[in-house]
Each structure stands twice: as structure tokens, then as C-alpha cells.
Design brief:
Elements: H1 6-29, H2 36-52, H3 60-67, E1 70-73, H4 80-90, E2 103-106, H5 113-116, H6 119-129, E3 135-138, H7 139-148, H8 162-167, H9 171-175, H10 198-206, H11 218-230, H12 242-247, H13 254-276, H14 283-301
Parallel strand pairs: 1-2, 2-3
Helix pairs in contact: 1-2, 1-7, 2-4, 11-14, 13-14
Length: about 325
């Protein structure tokens, strides 16, 4: 580019900047692939932008997150090493797989990483270290934020992330951990209870969890629930049907917590209907189930699974 004047270089770079923003917007909203040749050009042009100091300066909130450190994992559309170098040259720390980062950037291809690290555990650690303020981006989302000068999570809803998140191989897995906490509202007058498989009910009972007049003390019930949440259910193969074990998901997972919550919430709803219909006095059991649900929610759900993917989600 030596044959161009500095003014011409600025003009070319700014035109490419505008073009890149639109290509990235399309890649995010329509989940299209960024052309390989454009990915290569992005690296080259980013280097020129950094050298000439004409990159849009990040907003204060975005800059605060970046200053906490950046952890990038995987390739596509850019190679991880190239992205790391660009972030460093932009003036922000890159911490690798350290738990000190406030920003996690995920490529579409993690290569050998799944064999070396547990992505969910890494995200938990990063989120804890950042005091619940971890922001997770795809490479496309991060680059869009850099090129536009505004964090994509601070957008006014003018760009839709839904399709991109659900089609990204790793953002999707993070997104799937989100679930809405079940309620225990029961409609009066219903004669039939919601069907709940006795094996699911029995799993809690197998661990000694009991409520009601002949139930356990509060601290004992909480200990039993903690045990269920943290227990390796593969040890029960042969005692319980494998299909049921699969439904209860992995140790300390969102799936395990969701199954526990829905089971207890459904038992509570059924008990309320029986109570309202005058069939049985279930007031003690209902009170204890609801108390235990509130404990599960505050202990394991709030701040972790109560918002999509455990990252900031733009308002629409």
C-alpha cells in the first residue's frame, strides 16, 4: 500500500471498515459464512488500522470489560493466534485460558480444546472471577463490536443475535443451559393431577429426601438435595433405567437442576390440588417443597442459569 498517500490509505481503510461491518452484520443475523479471503483481509486491515490509530475507540463499558482481559478459544473465521495478536496490539491484555478475563471469544472450531479443558467449567470460573459480569462473544460478534466502535451487547436491538447464537456450535451449548424456573401455581377445580413418573419422584426418595409431617428437618432436606445435584448417577446403572438416568443429566449441570426443580414443582402443584379439593391436608409438605425450591433457586440458579447463556443479552 506504499504507493498511496496517507489520506488515500485512510479513505480505503474506512471504506473497508464500513464494508466489514455490513458483512459481519449479515454473518450474525443470517448466520452466513465470512469468505476466507475476507477473513485474511480483516487481519491485514486491522493491523493497518491499529498502526494508524483509526480504529473506533471502544465505549467505556466495553473498554472496562476488555481491560479485565480477553480469553479467546478456537479458530474461524480468524485463527486464534491472529486474533490474540490483534487484541494485544489494540492495547488489551490476553490471558489465554486464565480465569482472570472478563471477555471470552469463541471460534467455530475449538480443535483439540475439548480434550484439554471443560468449557462449562472454564466459563463458570471466568464468570466467578469477573463477579458475574463475563461477556461471551463469537469471533463475529467481537469483530462487529470492534469495527462498529460499540459493544454488540449495548446495541439498541437493531441487530438480531438469535439465529447466530443458536447456529454457533459452542455458543449454542452455552445458550442451552438457560431455563426458566418453574412455578408452583395450581389452578383450582382440576380433578386430575399432573402426571409425574414415580421413578423421577423415587430418585429423590432414594437419596432420602422427604417432606411433610414425617419428613426431614430443613438442613437435612437441603443436604439431600445437594447430594442429588452433585452425585454421579452413573453409579446407579443397573438400579434405575438408563433412560431415566439420562433425563437427570450430568453432575452439577443445568439439566440436573432443571429436573430437580420441575420434579419438586410438579409434586407441589399436585399436592395443592389435592389440598384444594379437600382430599388431603398437604399444607406442611407444600410449605417445605416451596421452601426447598426457593433454596435451590438462590443457591444454584440465580446469577447462573436465570439469564440466557450466562452472558449479557441485548434488550429487544
Amino acid at each position: 500500500m506504499a504507493e498511496y498517500s496517507e489520506e488515500q490509505i485512510h479513505e480505503i481503510l474506512e471504506q473497508f471498515l464500513d464494508h466489514s461491518v455490513e458483512v459481519l452484520r449479515s454473518a450474525i443475523e443470517a448466520s452466513t459464512e465470512i469468505p476466507t479471503n475476507l477473513s485474511d483481509q480483516l487481519v491485514g486491515f486491522l493491523e493497518h488500522w491499529i498502526n494508524l490509530k483509526i480504529l473506533p475507540f471502544p465505549s467505556a463499558k466495553f473498554r472496562t470489560q476488555l481491560l479485565k482481559g480477553v480469553c479467546s478459544l478456537g479458530n474461524e473465521p480468524l485463527e486464534e493466534r491472529n486474533l490474540d495478536q490483534l487484541v494485544k496490539r489494540w492495547g488489551f491484555p490476553v490471558h489465554g485460558k486464565s480465569t482472570l478475563s472478563g471477555v471470552l471469544i469463541l471460534g467455530k472450531n475449538l480443535g483439540a480444546y475439548p480434550k484439554q479443558i471443560n468449557l462449562e467449567n472454564l466459563i463458570d470460573k471466568l464468570n466467578t472471577e469477573s463477579k458475574g459480569e463475563l461477556r461471551i462473544y463469537s469471533q463475529e460478534m467481537f469483530l462487529f463490536s470492534v469495527f462498529s466502535g460499540k459493544d454488540i451487547y449495548e446495541s439498541d436491538g437493531s441487530i438480531s443475535l438469535e439465529s447466530h447464537i443458536l447456529k454457533h456450535p459452542f455458543l449454542k451449548s452455552v445458550e442451552n443451559e438457560y431455563f426458566a424456573w418453574p412455578d408452583t401455581f395450581a389452578m383450582p377445580g382440576r380433578k386430575h393431577n399432573i402426571k409425574i413418573d414415580t421413578t423421577q419422584d423415587g430418585l429423590l426418595a432414594m437419596f432420602g429426601y422427604r417432606v411433610g409431617m414425617n419428613g426431614l428437618r430443613t438442613d437435612e432436606r437441603r443436604y439431600k438435595l445437594k447430594t442429588v445435584y452433585e452425585y454421579d448417577l452413573s453409579k446407579l446403572r443397573g438400579q434405575i433405567d438408563n433412560n431415566y438416568l439420562y433425563e437427570w443429566a450430568g453432575v452439577r449441570s443445568s439439566g440436573r437442576l432443571k429436573k430437580m426443580a420441575i420434579t419438586i414443582a410438579t409434586l407441589t402443584k399436585n399436592a395443592k390440588r389435592s389440598h384444594m379439593n379437600g382430599q388431603r391436608n398437604m399444607s406442611v409438605a407444600i410449605s417445605e417443597w416451596e421452601s426447598d425450591l426457593a433454596w435451590l433457586k438462590s443457591t444454584y440458579y440465580d446469577g447462573r442459569y436465570n439469564h440466557r447463556g450466562r452472558w449479557y443479552w441485548p434488550k429487544t
